[in-house]
């Protein structure tokens, strides 16, 4: 990316506002390649130079990618004055300018959500043409039939659209079965509307996988962690577990 202002680099890595970072630099708290720098406007290459703040080398990240286990009752939005959003759940160490949820889950839907500040990656992940499937577990109010499975595979017809072919299977049978659903679109209330078109109601819904990346079972509702480079690649390389 080339040379950038030192105060801008530090602000992008969550060391405070540009003004706060400028003050930190003036107080001799920052070194570039071992040399103290006191001018906020000084230039550095964050990709190649060694930057340290108060004696600790910083691990520069151009972008951040976060896995969140979204709980029910939280909005998939960057900000909202009426209800908590997924960004409100992040610890201070992960907060940085430009974060947004890549895709959405309904307020009462839980499970895997990716939060990032990388718009290009989000577009690749969400574009239907890239065939990045999302897998959900759903509890429905009536048994699933072979006709339902066939309808999902051929494309369920809704009032305003015909859904792309989707997968459907039963995990736990019964009066209120637990099923899996595999789609590569993300239309408004899509899974619920697909079942409604088949005369069924979704009682609970959880996203468990995006592409080849499964929700980390160690993350409780509302908990999050950064993704590794290997996990990012998994999102764009679908591993069929069903």
Keywords:
nine-stranded mixed beta sheet, four-stranded antiparallel beta sheet, alpha+beta, 242 residues, 15 strands, 3 domains, Structural Genomics Hypothetical 15.5 Kd Protein In mrcA-pckA Intergenic Region, Chain A, single chain, Alpha-Beta Plaits
Describe the 3D structure.
This protein is α+β, with helices and mostly antiparallel strands. It has 3 domains: 4-57, Roll (Structural Genomics Hypothetical 15.5 Kd Protein In mrcA-pckA Intergenic Region, Chain A); 65-128 and 215-235, Alpha-Beta Plaits (2-Layer Sandwich), CATH 3.30.70; 133-210, Alpha-Beta Plaits, CATH 3.30.70.1560. 20% of the residues lie in helices and 26% in strands. It is built from 6 helices and 15 strands. The chain has helices spanning 6-12, 18-26, 119-126, 146-154, 190-197, 229-235; strands at 4-5, 30-32, 35-36, 43-44, 51-53, 56-57, 65-70, 100-101, 110-116, 134-140, 167-172, 178-183, 202-210, 213-214, 224-226. Strand 2 (30-32) and strand 3 (35-36) form a beta hairpin. The radius of gyration is 22 Å and the shape is elongated. It starts with a strand and ends in a 7-residue tail after the last helix.
